[in-house]
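Write out a sequence, fold above all:
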Amino acid sequence: MRILVLGGTQFLGRAIAAHAVGLGHAVTCAARGLSGVAPPGVRFIAVDRDRPEGLAGLAGTKFDAAVDVARHPGQVRRALAALDGRVGHWTFVSTTSVYADTATPGQRAGTARLLAPSEDGTYGAAKVTCERALDGGALICRAGLIAGPGDPTGRFPYWVARLARGGEVLAPADPEDPVQLIDARDLAGWIVRAARDGLSGTFDAVAPPCTRRAFLDRCAASFGASYTATWVDPAFLDRHGAARESGPFSLPLPLPDTIGDASRDVSPTLAAGLTLRPLEETVRDTLHWLEAGGGPMTGLTADEEAALLRAWHAGRGRGPA
């Protein structure tokens, strides 16, 4: 196939391009080229999707499939207009952040209520607008938390690095709350296969959930680390200014008010061909990437975590859970 990746120089887009090239497809990456470099074997074309004629470098070229990872509605509409009639199959990578109900567990892509669309609003609302620009023949792939080597957010790598150190680990919220993620390489493989097969429709693209306790246990077991988890109340983290998602002084796992975003029913996606590697493989590969100089890192430093643990125990009067 001749595949166009609108992006292709960072994380998921790069994983899609690399996977397709590895299968022998002719891949073109169209991006500004500021976030990284395209994989070896890929044709790179510099574009600026914020300009009306920013995709002129693709003029006259036809593709069997295109994959778009954009978050800005104007960029999506301009791409659809510029490539009209020259792409056989469209995939748009959206997000599970499009859903309005973030509390109810077990929702499905086909029936869950969406946020109101917005041009300039939040990430999820803007993605809703992007989705609505596509016709019914496209594949809309609503990705959850994407993990693995090359993760630019640092959210999953934080837990990999932290559990590799072992010892007492500060863990947020309830150990039975769900965690749901997907390896970027598994998502990339499914997107390329879906394009080959002409799959259309809307799917949540993420692995089935596991509990937070199981997530930490499996991460630690991936490299034989010994640890104890101290589960802290979200209100305690809020009082001490710990952020909920990522960045400095944060614990990057969703908290209970977003368990609906971490417990999607993905049985339709699995039936549509999504295959998944073991979490342990993703953990080990991410640790190797970190040890080789990958990053960035986010979350608590060792000293910040120790200070929070001391404060928690001082208030609770007990040891690790």
Summary: The chain has two domains: 2-148+180-205, 155-179+210-261+278-309. The domain at 155-179+210-261+278-309 is CATH 3.90.25 (UDP-galactose 4-epimerase; domain 1). Residues 119 and 226 are 47 Å apart (CA to CA).
